[in-house]
Amino acid sequence: MNEAVKLLLVEDDDALRFIVKDNLEQNNYQVDVAENGQLAIEQYERNKYHLIILDVMLPKVDGFKVAEHIRKTDENIPIIFLTARSMTEDKITGLTIGGDDYIPKPFSMEELLLKIKIFLKRSNNIAGGKPETSKVKKIGRFVFLPEELTLSFEGQARKLTIKEMELIKLFSGNVNKVLNRNEILEKVWGSNDYFLGRSLDVFISRLRKYFKPDPNVKIVNLHGIGFRFTVKKEEN
Questions:
Q1: Residue-wise over 98-131: b if at least 16 C-beta within 10 A, else e?
Q2: C-alpha distances out from residue 3 to 123, 218, 220, Å
Q3: What is the number of structural domains in the chain?
Q4: Could you tell me if 108 and 137 lie in one domain?
Q5: What region holds the OmpR/PhoB-type domain (predicted)?
Q6: Rounded CA gap, 111 and 109, in Å?
Q7: Is residue 64 part of a domain?
Q8: Helix (H) or strand (E) holding 164
């Protein structure tokens, strides 16, 4: 049962908003709705949600600005964007500013319900602090705490998003091994397509900046194949 799970649906199309809300409620989700970006921000600030379904093209404040506002205070709440099928750049932008996934319109409720279930499970695993993620990991001169979503260097801790944590966890568990791009996308994003691949490249660039203070830790790009996460031991 999903009785305690509360979702925010932000969609300006009245008919679509009604249909999606009705279907979600039939699947035992509690659903608040907003028909524009300003109302979405107000709803978010007044209530606690487990996941947000966010249209890109919204009156008053667009979906990207709503997502950016949310990410200032919550790096981990799952955000699923609803996008027009032809708007390629919107899909890439949405994923790189903090969206977890996108669904192109028109979409099936089965697809939306599946994605909701996947992302709720992931976020619940983080909140629940699973035993396997609670261990401290040393990565070169970094200290990685998956459960706490932190990566520390010489006592300075950086807060990570769930996706950043999952990528670092995957890399650190496969040091000096070749990881195929498709394999990474399937394990971290749950699917594999062009737009998610572009998002992966953005995350890789971000992680390279995080690890830059220690030259012994590198993410090596293997063109057309994937990546190798290398950690050299410091020479005494």
A1: bbbbbbbbebeeeebeebbebbbebbeebeeeee
A2: 17, 44, 45
A3: 2
A4: no
A5: 134-231
A6: 5
A7: yes
A8: helix 162-172
| CB 40 within 8 Å of CB 66 | yes
φ and ψ at residue 151, rounded to 5 degrees:
-130, 120
Nearest residue to 23 (alpha-carbon basis) of 81, 110, 100, 106: 110
Backbone CA torsion sign across 65, 71, 76, 77: negative
Compute mean pLDDT per 10 residues along the chain, 236 residues long, and list them. 79 94 94 96 95 93 92 87 70 73 84 86 58 69 86 87 87 93 85 74 91 95 92 73
> What range defines the domain where residue 66 resides?
6-128
158 forms bridges with which residues in the sheet? Answer: 151
Report if residue 236 sits inside a domain: no
Say what the pLDDT of residue 159 is: 82
State whether 162 and 114 are in the same domain: no
Of 128, 163, 190, which residue constitutes the final position of a domain?
Answer: 128
